[in-house]
Description:
35% of the residues lie in helices and 11% in strands.
Amino acid sequence: RRLHEGFGWSNPVNLAYGYARDVEAASGGYIRPRIVSWRTIDAFPSLEGDWQWTEDEFTTAARSGKWPKVITDYRGEIETYGLAGKVDSGAADEFWFFGAPGFGFFEAASFGPGAIPVNGGMYPDVPVSRPFAIMGFNYARGAGEMLHDLAHRTDATMPHFYGGWNFLRNLSLEPFL
């Protein structure tokens, strides 16, 4: 059985399609995510520090609820699964990683030339022709948390393009005094 089944977590396929519908609805149809490919990988992701979960280690952590602080080896995952080639060919603009607690995913991470802060890691040295993002979703949570992750990505991205969120700059408290 897959981890999400064994631990009673959400089905990642259902989460992905629900998230896509929610993003489209929340944007008034302006953003229309398309899932162009799906790959189910029956393996733990590679983690920074050249480490990877064993089934026993993962099960112990899941039962205890005590997770070590780890980060996915994004460079390794990008290379292993040929993600840069998908970006370079125009087949994909971003990727959604689904996994369990302890997989070390950032809510969002940015890759390639021109990588910007998106509320997670920045990897400008990834060899690809244009920047792209990877969203990291935890299937022990729901679609609401996925939208929350996207809101954090938006919060982190907007200052890059619009110069910041200093809403107090033009705020007058006079009407309230």
